[in-house]
């Protein structure tokens, strides 16, 4: 069993070792989302998701071409 300074040092080392990576998932998600729906401004990852989104959320509208999005 450790005491005093050894215990404090061991706790500090364990805390550093178990600490999660810096940065947030929100920032990483924002980098990955490139396509935006022009109607409702939802962000999507690619054109296929945009066409699926139009089919479910905006069925009366025609999805924009890939050069537009």
TrEMBL record:
SUPFAM superfamilies: Expressed protein At2g23090/F21P24.15
Pfam family, one: zf-met
Gene3D superfamilies attached to this UniProt entry: At2g23090-like
Transmembrane segments: none
Subcellular location as annotated: Cytoplasm; Nucleus
Alphabetically ordered keywords of this record: Cytoplasm, Metal-binding, Nucleus, Zinc, Zinc-finger
PANTHER family, alphabetized: GEO09665P1-RELATED, ZINC FINGER PROTEIN 706
Record protein name field: C2H2-type domain-containing protein
């Amino acid at each position: 069993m450790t005491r005093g300074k050894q215990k404090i040092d061991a706790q500090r080392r364990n805390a550093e070792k178990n600490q999660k990576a810096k940065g947030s998932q929100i920032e990483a998600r924002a980098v990955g989302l490139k396509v935006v729906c022009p109607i409702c401004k939802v962000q999507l990852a690619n054109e296929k998701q945009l066409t699926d989104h139009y089919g479910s959320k905006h069925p009366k509208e025609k999805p924009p071409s890939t050069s537009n999005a």
